[in-house]
Task: structure prediction
Amino acid sequence: MTDGWEISILGVEDEEFEEESERGGERGWRRSRAEASLVRNTVGSATIRESLVEFLNAMSDAISGIPEFLGPLYVSEIELSAEISASGKISLMGSGAEIGTTGGISFKLVRKATEPVS
Result:
């Protein structure tokens, strides 16, 4: 066991589509609910930790420019839903992204309270 603990994951099999998307050649996967196949895989805890760190670093970069105040309102929390693939890859769940699975990871990011200046 060189990768720490082993975690069994039941998830959608990773499969990238070969076509380039209209947004600069980014790759992704596309599959209908009928074509989705679930697989069970064992992934090391270090692999999942690396995927989580990569995902959270990317999300931190994406939300770093959100202003604290929007007129009289402010953003106090951001909730993200993610899915873990059978290989341990963490992906942001988009609108309508469910493929018949109910598991996933939820992150609730709460803005740190600012301390008054003395």
